[in-house]
Amino acid sequence: MAEYLSFGEIMLRLKTPGHERFFQSPAFEATFGGGEANVAVALSNYGLSSGFVSALPDNDVGASAIGELKRFGVDTSNIRRSGDRVGIYFLETGANQRPSKVIYDRAHSSISECKIGDFDWASIFAGAKWLHITGITPALTQDSADLSIECVKAAKQAGVTVSCDFNFRGKLWKYGKSAPEVMSELVKYVDVGIANEEDCQKSLGISVDVDVETGELDTSKYEALSDKVLELYPDMATIAITLRESHSADRNGWSACLRDREQGFKLSRHYELTDIVDRVGGGDSFASALIYGLNAYDDKQQSLEFAVAASCLKHSILGDFNRVTVPEAEKLMSGDGSGRVQR
Which string of DSSP letters, residue by residue, matches 218-245? Predict the structure, then answer.
Protein backbone atom coordinates (compact mmCIF):
# COMPACT_ATOMS: atom_id res chain seq x y z
CA MET A 1 0.00 0.00 0.00
CA ALA A 2 1.15 3.55 -0.73
CA GLU A 3 2.48 5.77 2.05
CA TYR A 4 1.60 9.13 0.45
CA LEU A 5 -2.02 9.37 -0.64
CA SER A 6 -4.11 12.03 -2.32
CA PHE A 7 -7.90 12.07 -2.56
CA GLY A 8 -9.86 13.82 -5.29
CA GLU A 9 -10.72 13.79 -8.97
CA ILE A 10 -8.72 13.13 -12.12
CA MET A 11 -10.24 14.72 -15.21
CA LEU A 12 -9.94 14.58 -18.95
CA ARG A 13 -8.11 17.77 -20.00
CA LEU A 14 -9.05 19.12 -23.44
CA LYS A 15 -6.70 21.94 -24.44
CA THR A 16 -6.72 24.05 -27.58
CA PRO A 17 -3.56 23.67 -29.71
CA GLY A 18 -0.89 26.21 -28.86
CA HIS A 19 -2.49 29.51 -27.91
CA GLU A 20 -5.63 29.10 -30.05
CA ARG A 21 -9.07 30.23 -28.92
CA PHE A 22 -11.78 27.62 -28.31
CA PHE A 23 -12.71 25.95 -31.65
CA GLN A 24 -10.40 28.20 -33.63
CA SER A 25 -9.46 24.86 -35.20
CA PRO A 26 -11.44 21.62 -34.84
CA ALA A 27 -8.94 19.99 -32.47
CA PHE A 28 -8.16 19.56 -28.80
CA GLU A 29 -5.12 18.04 -27.09
CA ALA A 30 -6.49 15.30 -24.82
CA THR A 31 -4.58 14.46 -21.64
CA PHE A 32 -5.47 13.91 -17.99
CA GLY A 33 -5.06 16.09 -14.93
CA GLY A 34 -6.58 17.46 -11.76
CA GLY A 35 -5.18 18.95 -8.57
CA GLU A 36 -4.96 15.87 -6.38
CA ALA A 37 -3.89 13.54 -9.21
CA ASN A 38 -1.16 16.02 -10.15
CA VAL A 39 0.21 15.78 -6.61
CA ALA A 40 0.18 11.97 -6.67
CA VAL A 41 2.13 11.88 -9.96
CA ALA A 42 4.75 14.36 -8.76
CA LEU A 43 5.29 12.52 -5.47
CA SER A 44 5.87 9.32 -7.41
CA ASN A 45 8.36 11.16 -9.65
CA TYR A 46 10.24 12.15 -6.49
CA GLY A 47 10.58 8.49 -5.54
CA LEU A 48 7.91 8.37 -2.85
CA SER A 49 5.35 5.59 -2.54
CA SER A 50 2.35 7.44 -3.92
CA GLY A 51 -1.31 6.47 -4.29
CA PHE A 52 -4.48 8.11 -5.58
CA VAL A 53 -7.93 7.62 -4.02
CA SER A 54 -10.87 8.43 -6.27
CA ALA A 55 -13.72 7.07 -8.35
CA LEU A 56 -13.88 6.54 -12.12
CA PRO A 57 -16.42 4.87 -14.40
CA ASP A 58 -15.82 1.33 -15.55
CA ASN A 59 -15.34 2.27 -19.19
CA ASP A 60 -12.49 2.91 -21.61
CA VAL A 61 -12.01 6.55 -20.60
CA GLY A 62 -11.84 5.63 -16.91
CA ALA A 63 -9.41 2.83 -17.73
CA SER A 64 -7.23 5.24 -19.71
CA ALA A 65 -7.07 7.64 -16.76
CA ILE A 66 -5.99 4.80 -14.49
CA GLY A 67 -3.44 3.66 -17.05
CA GLU A 68 -1.94 7.15 -17.18
CA LEU A 69 -1.51 7.21 -13.40
CA LYS A 70 0.04 3.75 -13.44
CA ARG A 71 2.51 4.91 -16.09
CA PHE A 72 3.97 7.25 -13.48
CA GLY A 73 4.06 4.56 -10.79
CA VAL A 74 1.03 5.78 -8.83
CA ASP A 75 -0.86 3.10 -6.89
CA THR A 76 -4.45 3.01 -8.21
CA SER A 77 -5.80 0.16 -6.09
CA ASN A 78 -8.03 2.54 -4.13
CA ILE A 79 -9.80 3.98 -7.17
CA ARG A 80 -13.44 2.95 -6.97
CA ARG A 81 -15.04 1.93 -10.30
CA SER A 82 -18.48 3.50 -10.19
CA GLY A 83 -20.63 6.10 -11.91
CA ASP A 84 -20.88 7.00 -15.59
CA ARG A 85 -18.69 10.06 -16.20
CA VAL A 86 -15.11 11.23 -16.12
CA GLY A 87 -15.06 14.95 -15.34
CA ILE A 88 -13.75 17.18 -18.12
CA TYR A 89 -12.13 20.58 -18.22
CA PHE A 90 -11.50 22.66 -21.32
CA LEU A 91 -8.41 24.88 -21.37
CA GLU A 92 -7.60 27.85 -23.58
CA THR A 93 -4.04 29.05 -22.99
CA GLY A 94 -3.69 32.82 -22.89
CA ALA A 95 -0.81 34.97 -24.05
CA ASN A 96 0.41 38.46 -23.18
CA GLN A 97 -2.58 40.37 -21.75
CA ARG A 98 -5.14 37.68 -22.71
CA PRO A 99 -5.61 35.36 -19.72
CA SER A 100 -6.00 31.60 -19.88
CA LYS A 101 -9.55 30.33 -19.59
CA VAL A 102 -10.97 27.15 -18.01
CA ILE A 103 -14.46 25.72 -18.57
CA TYR A 104 -15.57 22.85 -16.33
CA ASP A 105 -17.81 19.95 -17.33
CA ARG A 106 -17.83 18.00 -14.08
CA ALA A 107 -21.50 17.58 -13.18
CA HIS A 108 -22.41 13.98 -12.26
CA SER A 109 -18.81 12.78 -12.50
CA SER A 110 -18.04 9.54 -10.67
CA ILE A 111 -16.36 11.12 -7.64
CA SER A 112 -19.05 13.80 -7.27
CA GLU A 113 -21.68 11.08 -6.87
CA CYS A 114 -19.81 9.16 -4.15
CA LYS A 115 -21.18 9.37 -0.63
CA ILE A 116 -20.10 8.87 2.96
CA GLY A 117 -19.39 5.18 3.53
CA ASP A 118 -18.33 4.42 -0.05
CA PHE A 119 -14.63 4.16 0.90
CA ASP A 120 -13.05 1.86 3.50
CA TRP A 121 -10.81 4.47 5.08
CA ALA A 122 -9.40 2.15 7.74
CA SER A 123 -8.06 -0.13 5.02
CA ILE A 124 -6.93 2.77 2.80
CA PHE A 125 -4.95 4.45 5.60
CA ALA A 126 -3.36 1.23 6.89
CA GLY A 127 0.38 1.87 6.52
CA ALA A 128 -0.11 5.40 5.16
CA LYS A 129 1.96 8.37 6.38
CA TRP A 130 0.42 11.30 4.54
CA LEU A 131 -2.88 12.39 2.99
CA HIS A 132 -3.23 15.33 0.59
CA ILE A 133 -6.60 16.86 -0.20
CA THR A 134 -7.74 20.15 -1.73
CA GLY A 135 -10.61 22.61 -1.64
CA ILE A 136 -11.66 21.51 -5.12
CA THR A 137 -13.45 18.23 -4.35
CA PRO A 138 -15.57 19.72 -1.52
CA ALA A 139 -16.77 22.34 -4.03
CA LEU A 140 -18.42 19.78 -6.32
CA THR A 141 -21.49 18.67 -4.35
CA GLN A 142 -22.73 18.41 -0.79
CA ASP A 143 -21.94 14.69 -0.88
CA SER A 144 -18.39 15.50 -2.00
CA ALA A 145 -18.00 17.96 0.85
CA ASP A 146 -19.28 15.43 3.40
CA LEU A 147 -17.02 12.73 1.96
CA SER A 148 -13.97 15.01 2.07
CA ILE A 149 -14.57 15.79 5.74
CA GLU A 150 -15.08 12.07 6.46
CA CYS A 151 -11.75 11.42 4.71
CA VAL A 152 -9.69 13.89 6.76
CA LYS A 153 -11.31 12.78 10.02
CA ALA A 154 -10.43 9.16 9.25
CA ALA A 155 -6.88 10.16 8.35
CA LYS A 156 -6.39 11.94 11.66
CA GLN A 157 -7.84 8.98 13.53
CA ALA A 158 -5.32 6.75 11.76
CA GLY A 159 -2.42 9.02 12.75
CA VAL A 160 -1.83 10.20 9.17
CA THR A 161 -0.46 13.70 8.52
CA VAL A 162 -2.96 15.76 6.49
CA SER A 163 -2.06 18.51 4.03
CA CYS A 164 -4.66 20.60 2.24
CA ASP A 165 -4.36 23.04 -0.62
CA PHE A 166 -7.21 25.48 0.01
CA ASN A 167 -7.75 25.92 -3.79
CA PHE A 168 -10.71 28.26 -4.29
CA ARG A 169 -12.67 27.57 -7.49
CA GLY A 170 -15.47 30.11 -7.77
CA LYS A 171 -17.01 28.33 -10.78
CA LEU A 172 -17.63 25.19 -8.71
CA TRP A 173 -19.34 26.35 -5.51
CA LYS A 174 -22.90 26.10 -6.88
CA TYR A 175 -24.80 23.71 -4.59
CA GLY A 176 -25.84 26.16 -1.89
CA LYS A 177 -22.88 26.21 0.49
CA SER A 178 -20.14 28.83 0.45
CA ALA A 179 -16.50 27.79 0.50
CA PRO A 180 -15.87 29.09 4.06
CA GLU A 181 -18.87 27.14 5.40
CA VAL A 182 -17.32 23.85 4.28
CA MET A 183 -13.59 24.55 4.34
CA SER A 184 -13.52 26.02 7.85
CA GLU A 185 -14.70 22.64 9.13
CA LEU A 186 -12.38 20.55 6.93
CA VAL A 187 -9.29 22.61 7.79
CA LYS A 188 -9.72 21.82 11.50
CA TYR A 189 -8.14 18.44 10.68
CA VAL A 190 -5.24 19.80 8.59
CA ASP A 191 -1.59 19.75 9.70
CA VAL A 192 -0.07 21.52 6.69
CA GLY A 193 -2.05 24.23 4.92
CA ILE A 194 -1.18 25.37 1.39
CA ALA A 195 -2.68 28.32 -0.44
CA ASN A 196 -2.12 30.94 -3.11
CA GLU A 197 -2.60 34.67 -2.72
CA GLU A 198 -6.40 34.58 -2.42
CA ASP A 199 -7.27 31.10 -1.15
CA CYS A 200 -7.03 31.96 2.55
CA GLN A 201 -9.46 34.80 2.05
CA LYS A 202 -11.99 33.19 -0.30
CA SER A 203 -11.83 29.61 0.99
CA LEU A 204 -11.62 30.37 4.70
CA GLY A 205 -13.14 33.84 4.85
CA ILE A 206 -10.03 35.29 6.49
CA SER A 207 -9.74 38.98 5.73
CA VAL A 208 -6.35 40.66 5.38
CA ASP A 209 -5.67 43.66 3.17
CA VAL A 210 -4.03 41.78 0.28
CA ASP A 211 -4.79 42.77 -3.32
CA VAL A 212 -3.98 39.94 -5.74
CA GLU A 213 -4.97 41.84 -8.89
CA THR A 214 -2.22 44.47 -8.96
CA GLY A 215 0.68 42.10 -9.71
CA GLU A 216 2.63 43.60 -6.79
CA LEU A 217 3.09 41.82 -3.46
CA ASP A 218 3.69 43.14 0.04
CA THR A 219 5.25 40.19 1.88
CA SER A 220 4.61 41.73 5.31
CA LYS A 221 0.88 41.29 4.67
CA TYR A 222 1.39 37.62 3.91
CA GLU A 223 3.25 37.21 7.17
CA ALA A 224 0.21 38.68 8.92
CA LEU A 225 -2.09 36.43 6.89
CA SER A 226 -0.14 33.28 7.76
CA ASP A 227 -0.11 34.25 11.44
CA LYS A 228 -3.88 34.69 11.36
CA VAL A 229 -4.44 31.27 9.79
CA LEU A 230 -2.38 29.54 12.49
CA GLU A 231 -4.15 31.56 15.17
CA LEU A 232 -7.59 30.45 13.94
CA TYR A 233 -6.54 26.81 13.43
CA PRO A 234 -4.47 25.84 16.48
CA ASP A 235 -3.94 22.24 15.34
CA MET A 236 -2.29 23.35 12.09
CA ALA A 237 1.50 23.19 12.30
CA THR A 238 2.49 24.88 9.04
CA ILE A 239 0.99 27.19 6.44
CA ALA A 240 2.66 27.88 3.09
CA ILE A 241 1.48 30.54 0.64
CA THR A 242 2.61 30.86 -2.98
CA LEU A 243 3.20 34.43 -4.14
CA ARG A 244 2.48 34.99 -7.81
CA GLU A 245 2.99 38.38 -9.45
CA SER A 246 0.92 38.24 -12.64
CA HIS A 247 2.45 40.79 -14.99
CA SER A 248 0.90 39.04 -18.01
CA ALA A 249 -0.15 35.53 -19.08
CA ASP A 250 3.45 34.84 -20.13
CA ARG A 251 5.40 36.66 -17.41
CA ASN A 252 4.96 36.07 -13.68
CA GLY A 253 7.02 36.57 -10.59
CA TRP A 254 7.13 33.40 -8.47
CA SER A 255 8.03 32.87 -4.81
CA ALA A 256 6.44 31.62 -1.60
CA CYS A 257 6.42 32.05 2.13
CA LEU A 258 6.01 29.58 4.97
CA ARG A 259 4.98 30.05 8.59
CA ASP A 260 5.90 27.25 10.96
CA ARG A 261 5.11 27.22 14.67
CA GLU A 262 8.64 26.02 15.49
CA GLN A 263 10.85 27.84 12.97
CA GLY A 264 8.82 31.01 12.33
CA PHE A 265 8.19 32.92 9.09
CA LYS A 266 10.32 32.20 6.02
CA LEU A 267 10.41 33.76 2.57
CA SER A 268 11.79 31.94 -0.48
CA ARG A 269 14.00 33.04 -3.33
CA HIS A 270 12.15 34.94 -6.05
CA TYR A 271 12.03 33.72 -9.68
CA GLU A 272 11.06 35.65 -12.79
CA LEU A 273 9.07 33.42 -15.16
CA THR A 274 9.37 35.20 -18.50
CA ASP A 275 8.23 32.59 -21.04
CA ILE A 276 5.57 30.47 -19.35
CA VAL A 277 4.71 27.29 -21.25
CA ASP A 278 1.85 26.12 -19.00
CA ARG A 279 0.95 27.53 -15.59
CA VAL A 280 -1.93 25.09 -14.96
CA GLY A 281 -0.80 22.74 -12.20
CA GLY A 282 1.71 25.24 -10.85
CA GLY A 283 0.12 25.27 -7.41
CA ASP A 284 -0.12 21.48 -7.36
CA SER A 285 3.56 21.23 -8.24
CA PHE A 286 4.34 23.49 -5.28
CA ALA A 287 2.18 21.39 -2.95
CA SER A 288 3.74 18.09 -3.98
CA ALA A 289 7.27 19.47 -3.76
CA LEU A 290 6.54 20.94 -0.33
CA ILE A 291 5.32 17.54 0.86
CA TYR A 292 8.51 15.99 -0.43
CA GLY A 293 10.65 18.74 1.12
CA LEU A 294 9.04 18.51 4.54
CA ASN A 295 9.80 14.79 4.57
CA ALA A 296 13.29 14.96 3.00
CA TYR A 297 14.90 17.96 4.75
CA ASP A 298 15.14 18.93 8.40
CA ASP A 299 15.32 22.63 7.61
CA LYS A 300 12.00 24.28 6.68
CA GLN A 301 13.75 26.92 4.59
CA GLN A 302 15.25 24.17 2.45
CA SER A 303 11.83 22.52 2.14
CA LEU A 304 10.35 25.80 0.97
CA GLU A 305 13.15 26.45 -1.52
CA PHE A 306 12.73 22.97 -3.03
CA ALA A 307 8.99 23.54 -3.43
CA VAL A 308 9.45 26.90 -5.13
CA ALA A 309 12.21 25.61 -7.42
CA ALA A 310 10.23 22.53 -8.50
CA SER A 311 7.11 24.59 -9.17
CA CYS A 312 9.17 27.20 -11.01
CA LEU A 313 10.32 24.46 -13.38
CA LYS A 314 6.75 23.20 -13.84
CA HIS A 315 5.90 26.42 -15.67
CA SER A 316 8.19 25.20 -18.46
CA ILE A 317 6.32 21.88 -18.87
CA LEU A 318 3.17 21.37 -20.94
CA GLY A 319 0.35 19.49 -19.22
CA ASP A 320 -1.02 19.21 -15.70
CA PHE A 321 1.71 16.89 -14.40
CA ASN A 322 5.07 18.12 -13.16
CA ARG A 323 7.70 15.87 -14.72
CA VAL A 324 10.59 17.37 -12.76
CA THR A 325 13.05 15.18 -10.86
CA VAL A 326 14.59 15.82 -7.44
CA PRO A 327 18.09 16.48 -8.88
CA GLU A 328 16.68 19.02 -11.36
CA ALA A 329 14.86 20.94 -8.62
CA GLU A 330 17.87 20.78 -6.30
CA LYS A 331 20.10 22.10 -9.08
CA LEU A 332 17.86 25.15 -9.47
CA MET A 333 17.75 25.51 -5.67
CA SER A 334 21.52 25.75 -5.67
CA GLY A 335 21.37 28.73 -8.04
CA ASP A 336 21.89 27.11 -11.45
CA GLY A 337 19.08 28.52 -13.55
CA SER A 338 21.04 29.19 -16.70
CA GLY A 339 19.05 26.79 -18.89
CA ARG A 340 22.25 25.71 -20.67
CA VAL A 341 22.05 22.50 -22.71
CA GLN A 342 23.14 19.49 -20.67
CA ARG A 343 25.50 17.38 -22.85
Answer: -HHHHHHHHHHHHHH-TT--EEEEEEEE
